[in-house]
From TrEMBL:
Protein name per its UniProtKB record: SRPBCC domain-containing protein
Similarity comment: family membership: Belongs to the AHA1 family.
Span of domain Activator of Hsp90 ATPase homologue 1/2-like C-terminal: 14-140
Signal peptide: none
Pfam family, any one: AHSA1
Protein origin, superkingdom: Bacteria
InterPro entries: ASHA1/2-like_C, START-like_dom_sf
Length: 143
């Protein structure tokens, strides 16, 4: 079996979990730490929400598959130019929150990209995204 290609990041945020949750689920804040399609709108994320980027030769889809307010958010990733159908992959962005004493520990996992032919490329890009997004989420929640 190939090595796992999972990015993990942890950050402690000086804000309650409810504030961090808003940064993760409200498009007005998501746009401050990640890209959204131009036509996405401003409705909060919820279980089943689909975020879809349509390009000339492919589509990229994020689907909210786990939604536990103030605790856990999981968005499964699928790219239509991957070899297999979406249900053949378990590649996701997962945000886990744990509040203690007015602070929130945010644990982010991205992957596992090992099932993809260009998995290392996705992993490398996600390493940078993990670093940048966790810091931006922290800044937004604390201000």
């Amino acid at each position: 079996m190939s090595k796992q290609l999972i990015v993990e990041r942890d950050v402690t945020i000086d804000a309650p979990a409810a504030d961090v949750w808003d940064i993760l689920t409200l498009p007005v804040f998501i746009r401050g730490w990640d890209e959204l399609p131009e036509n996405f709108g401003d409705a909060p994320l919820q279980k089943g929400t689909e975020i879809k980027w349509v390009m000339k030769d492919k589509s990229v889809l994020l689907t909210v598959t786990d939604f536990e307010p103030h605790k856990r958010l999981k968005l499964n990733l699928y790219n239509t130019d991957w070899e297999k159908p979406a249900d053949a992959y378990d590649i996701a962005y997962t945000y886990t929150l744990q509040e203690k004493e007015g602070q929130t520990d945010l644990h982010v996992t991205i992957g596992d990209f090992q099932a993809l032919p260009k998995g290392q490329d996705y992993f490398d890009t996600s390493e940078e995204f993990g670093d940048n997004s966790t810091q931006k989420i922290k800044e937004l929640a604390e201000n």
